[in-house]
């Protein structure tokens, strides 16, 4: 009994152990009890907040842990993927990635310019880790692809994403008004300055902003009553506003423009969806105008007063009310759209600004983050590697000659090209075109059945967002695309007909 109490005290002292345990218990319970719809909702929910992830050695997210438990299921049902042409292309892309991992990781590995990297950062270790991570994501995709062809399961995906967005907003508001670094509080990892941008339950503000964008668009494309749409938008928008960066603002603008143009192109068939999407964007625009007008000063006065009341020391209170200096960033009072139009520096976490000795003709690269800039610079100077890329997750090694880089590009398109070059990227484009054509055909032929319009819209939104910023949400788009080619197996969902 004493040992049990001592263990519980250790768990409470480090809540991450308990949260990380959920990543094992939830998928295992859902699989044992055959509650596949709950597992779909859990995968969507846990993808939106990152406190369930373990960063002790490598990033082991709840999605990948679910992939471990889903290996037997995926291998049993992989024949459904092999039977369809997009499935063969998708598996072929993974085969190409494995081949490049063997070549650039073992046969002709990239050099370690720092001569001080650990095994997991060397070509051999990095290839294995990246391919293993990608393989587990594939297991989740196969599971989702065989389950999302029913309307019931797809609704669980939708509401899992929305629930995650609301949780993300809740964390950001708590952090904002009570000045608590929730991510550090729950995980013990990476304490950061939270006075400028909030991150809530995510590792960094950018992740929180990206989650807000995905959930906002999910609300905009999901069929629901107008009053509920307004409530959900108002509930999720603060996560975007208080964590917004240049990249997140650009993403929301470009995706909105592309989606509206697509709806207008198919205005005869998708008139209702276009109207609902436009209404949602109008609500977002109104909220943005209200939060970037004279109302702004009132809002921040209230915020500062609440923050002052909840300060625990006089030193923190003085720091909060002190005027901004050249060395101290201003409080959160900022117009995110003015940031996009006017600021040259990136609105990311401190230390994220590009600082690499680029040639004078490549000074435009300083507008990118260092990981993206280094990758672009590498391909400019080594165009031959554009054909097959640099191997799975190995661009950070290839591009480290000028500066030590340990992270992959954040721009999705650049990351894909880095992994397997224009050859692999062309295969991806072929796959996405096939998915898009099938989803459009289903939406036009039978828009009111099986949420076909919502499937098309969510697929397009996630792919567009991923192209601008790489995140785990891409697995839902690939699963939706594959599901559109897999015949509905009603017998698999008989468990829901109790």
Structure keywords:
498 residues; mainly alpha; 21 helices; disordered N terminus; disordered C terminus
Please give a structural write-up.
By secondary structure, this protein is an all-alpha fold. Among the domains are: 71-147 and 355-487, no CATH class; 296-325, no CATH class. Helices cover 66% and strands 0% of the residues. It contains 21 helices and no strands. The chain has helices at residues 2-13, 15-32, 36-48, 62-69, 71-82, 85-107, 123-147, 151-178, 182-187, 205-221, 226-243, 246-265, 271-291, 295-309, 314-321, 336-342, 370-381, 395-398, 412-445, 452-468, 474-483. Helix 19 (412-445) runs antiparallel to helix 20. The radius of gyration is 23 Å and the shape is globular.
- Give start-end ranges of low-pLDDT stretches: 1-9, 293-356, 489-498
Strand content: under 5%
> Percentage of helical residues?
55-70%
Alpha plus pi helix count? 21
Q: In this structure, how is the largest beta sheet organized?
A: none
Give me the count of strands. 0
- What structural class do helix, strand and pairing data support? mainly alpha
**SSE sequence, one letter per element:** HHHHHHHHHHHHHHHHHHHHH
Subunit organisation of the chains: single chain
Shape: globular
The Rg value, from CA coordinates, equals 23 Å
What does the average pLDDT come to?
78
Distance between the termini: 41 Å
């Amino acid at each position: 009994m004493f040992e049990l109490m001592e263990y519980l005290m250790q768990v409470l002292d480090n809540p991450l152990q308990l949260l990380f345990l959920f990543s094992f218990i939830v998928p295992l319970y859902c699989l044992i009890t055959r509650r596949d719809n709950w597992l779909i909702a859990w995968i969507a929910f846990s993808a939106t907040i990152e406190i369930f992830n373990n960063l002790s050695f490598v990033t082991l997210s709840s999605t990948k842990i679910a992939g471990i438990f889903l290996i037997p299921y995926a291998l049993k049902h992989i024949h459904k993927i092999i039977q369809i042409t997009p499935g063969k292309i998708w598996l072929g892309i993974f085969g190409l990635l494995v081949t490049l991992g063997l070549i650039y990781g073992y046969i002709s590995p990239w050099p370690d310019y720092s001569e001080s990297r650990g095994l997991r950062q060397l070509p051999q270790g990095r290839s294995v880790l990246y391919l293993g991570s990608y393989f587990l994501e594939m297991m989740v995709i196969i599971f989702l692809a065989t389950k999302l062809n029913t309307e019931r399961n797809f609704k669980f995906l939708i509401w899992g994403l929305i629930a995650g967005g609301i949780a993300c907003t809740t964390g950001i508001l708590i952090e904002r008004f009570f000045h608590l670094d929730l991510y550090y509080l729950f995980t013990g990892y990476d304490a950061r300055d939270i006075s400028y941008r909030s991150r809530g339950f995510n590792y960094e503000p950018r992740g929180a902003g990206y989650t807000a964008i995905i959930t906002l668009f999910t609300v905009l494309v999901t069929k629901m009553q107008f009053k509920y749409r307004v409530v959900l938008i108002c509930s999720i928008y603060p996560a975007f506003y208080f964590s917004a960066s240049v990249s997140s603002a650009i993403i929301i603008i470009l995706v909105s423009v592309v989606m509206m143009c697509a709806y207008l192109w198919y205005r005869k068939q998708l008139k209702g969806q276009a109207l609902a999407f436009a209404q949602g964007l109008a609500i977002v625009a109104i909220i943005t105008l209200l939060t970037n007008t004279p109302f702004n000063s009132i809002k921040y006065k209230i915020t500062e007063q609440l923050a002052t009341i909840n300060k625990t020391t006089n030193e923190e209170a003085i720091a909060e009310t002190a005027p901004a200096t050249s060395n101290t960033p201003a409080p959160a009072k900022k117009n995110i759209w003015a940031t996009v139009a006017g600021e040259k520096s990136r609105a990311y976490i401190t230390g994220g600004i590009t600082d690499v000795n680029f040639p004078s003709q490549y000074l435009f690269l300083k507008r990118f983050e260092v990981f993206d800039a280094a990758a672009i610079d590498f391909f400019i100077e080594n165009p031959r590697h554009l054909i097959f890329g640099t191997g799975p997750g190995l661009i950070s090694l290839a591009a480290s000659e000028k500066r030590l880089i340990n992270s992959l590009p954040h721009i999705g398109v650049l990351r894909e090209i880095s992994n397997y070059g224009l050859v692999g990227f062309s295969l991806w484009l072929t796959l996405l075109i096939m998915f898009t054509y099938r989803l459009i055909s289903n939406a036009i032929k039978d828009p009111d059945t099986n949420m076909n319009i919502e499937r098309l819209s969510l697929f397009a939104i996630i792919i567009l967002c991923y192209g601008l910023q790489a995140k785990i949400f891409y697995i839902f788009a690939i699963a939706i695309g594959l599901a559109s080619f897999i015949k509905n197996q009603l017998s698999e969902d008989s468990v829901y007909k109790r």
